[in-house]
TrEMBL record, chain A:
Protein name from the UniProt record: H+transporting two-sector ATPase C subunit
UniProt keyword list: Membrane, Transmembrane, Transmembrane helix
Membrane topology, record value: Multi-pass membrane protein
Species the sequence originates in: Halobiforma nitratireducens JCM 10879
Gene Ontology MF annotations: proton transmembrane transporter activity
TM spans (from-to): 64-87
Residue span(s) of domain V-ATPase proteolipid subunit C-like: 31-87
Automatic annotation (TrEMBL), chain B:
Topology within the bilayer: Peripheral membrane protein
Protein name: A-type ATP synthase subunit C
GO aspect biological process, one term: proton motive force-driven plasma membrane ATP synthesis
Cellular component aspect of the GO annotation: plasma membrane; proton-transporting V-type ATPase, V0 domain
Function text: Component of the A-type ATP synthase that produces ATP from ADP in the presence of a proton gradient across the membrane.
InterPro entries documented for this protein: ATPase_csu/dsu_sf, ATPase_V0-cplx_csu, ATPase_V0-cplx_csu/dsu, V-ATPase_V0D/AC39_subunit, V-type_ATPase_csu/dsu, V-type_ATPase_csu/dsu_dom_3
């Protein structure tokens, strides 16, 4: 009984005196960095498949080098779009 | 089963490019009008250039065409296994065991008829899982028992061993060949289970179709020939069209067998044209060609449902095989003097 009382007193003391500093989980910069990073990972994943297919096509026919290259870097555009959030 | 990531995209790109290089209707129309030497020349200017040049010095005429076709087929399918990795290699390899079975059958028949190894060698299609060394050793042995000994450790050892006893009793090769076929078809669906959707479900669906068609073909042949053979011995498990006891019953009644195929939900519509012809003309060969064409079309449909999957590879394998068989049919037909329309009937073109 006495123990419980003591605890309650302690708790109320802490609540009255404790100062709470609120800060966001992520700062704006960190959130932008995360956005760009995730976009880059997604682009990389997309390019993995396209790149493999492009190399396959080039191995069969050399003329496909340029189309293959263009197709491979297309997903890169999502990283560029993600870079926009860094500047706003 | 092999683990690890598969490079489906890479294999698909290469396969589709090669698929595009296969002969089209136009080419067949030209080929049908040519003699054997003309066909050889035509092939020399196409995909088959290297093989024709390599073999040109040793063979001529229809033999040259045939060996060049075999060698080209083997080269392309070996390539498939070389490029692919992981799961997709496993799936392709399984299907290409077909050629192991073909090679083993050829070798066993060769030994049975005392054909010298060098002559058997030219008929092999080195595209399966058995490596060149094993095949070469198989060519050197004189008895079927020795040949089976060499296969110890492969999947074919046990079924062949079982078939051997029956072979020794009857002296017919059928039990050995059946054992090989069964082994091949039943391993196809190993550990795949019955996936409900996704590319592997289509792979299974396609293989089931192949097994069903094989069963249907065997059943029709048995029904037609009226031979007193046990249909159960030819039954291959894994299909959806026939149950084993069903098949045994149907073989005795030809019309009912045809009806059974026509009533099937999956294949009835697809084969309706062929079935009608089968009823009218009683032409088994036409029906078998129709089955082949249906299978080819089926694999094409599947490969457009899941564009980047093993289906495209399967449809390429089938199309390539079909091309080789068509050219062979043209060359052989020309050699024995069939006219153009007769040869065209022998071709399977979509």
């Amino acid at each position: 009984m006495t123990m419980e009382l003591a605890l309650a007193e302690l708790a109320s003391n802490v609540l009255q005196n404790g100062e709470i500093n609120e800060a966001p989980f992520l700062e704006g910069d960190a959130a932008a960095a995360l956005a760009v990073g995730l976009a880059a990972i997604a682009a990389g994943y997309a390019e993995r498949g396209i790149g493999a297919a492009a190399i396959g096509a080039i191995a069969e026919d050399d003329d496909l080098f340029v189309p293959g290259l263009i197709m491979t870097v297309l997903p890169e555009t999502i990283v560029i779009l993600a870079l926009v959030v860094v500047f706003v | 089963m092999k683990l690890g990531a598969s490079n489906t995209e890479y294999v698909n790109a290469r396969v589709r490019s090669r698929r595009a290089k296969l002969f089209g209707d136009e080419d067949y129309r030209k080929l049908v009008r040519m003699g054997p030497s003309g066909i050889a020349r035509f092939m020399e200017e196409s995909e088959y250039e290297r093989e024709i040049n390599e073999l040109g010095a040793r063979f001529s005429g229809v033999d040259l065409i045939e060996y060049a076709l075999n060698r080209n087929l083997a080269k392309h399918f070996q390539d498939l296994l070389e490029w692919s990795e992981g799961r997709i290699e496993d799936l392709i390899g399984r299907y290409l065991r077909k050629f192991d079975v073909w090679n083993l059958k050829t070798i066993i028949r060769g030994i049975y008829t005392d054909t010298p190894g060098d002559q058997i060698r030219t008929d092999l299609i080195r595209a399966g899982e058995l490596d060149d060394r094993t095949l070469d050793r198989l060519l050197e042995v004189d008895t079927i028992e020795d040949a089976i000994e060499i296969l110890e450790g492969t999947v074919y050892y046990e079924p062949l061993g079982d078939g051997l006893e029956e072979f020794e009793e009857t002296g017919a090769l059928v039990p050995l060949e059946n054992a090989l076929d069964r082994e091949f078809y039943e391993h196809l669906l190993d550990d795949l289970g019955r996936p409900q959707e996704g590319p592997e479900a289509k792979y299974v669906e396609f293989l089931q179709a192949e097994i069903d068609f094989r069963n249907a073909r065997n059943a029709l042949r048995l029904a037609r020939s009226g031979a007193d053979l046990d249909p159960a011995a030819y039954y291959i498990e894994g299909g959806v069209l026939f149950e084993q006891d069903e098949l045994s019953r149907l073989v005795t009644d030809y019309d009912e067998l045809v009806d059974h195929i026509a009533e099937n939900k999956r294949y009835g519509d697809r084969l309706s044209g062929a079935l009608r012809r089968l009823r009218e003309a009683d032409s088994l060969i036409q029906f078998e060609h129709a089955l082949d064409a249906a299978l080819l079309q089926y694999s094409d449909t599947l490969s457009s449902i899941y564009p980047v999957s093993v289906s495209a590879v399967l449809s390429y394998i089938l199309a390539k095989e079909r091309e080789v068989e068509n050219i062979r049919a043209i060359a052989r037909g020309r050699e024995v003097g069939l006219d153009e329309s007769e040869i065209e009937e022998e071709l399977v073109i979509l």
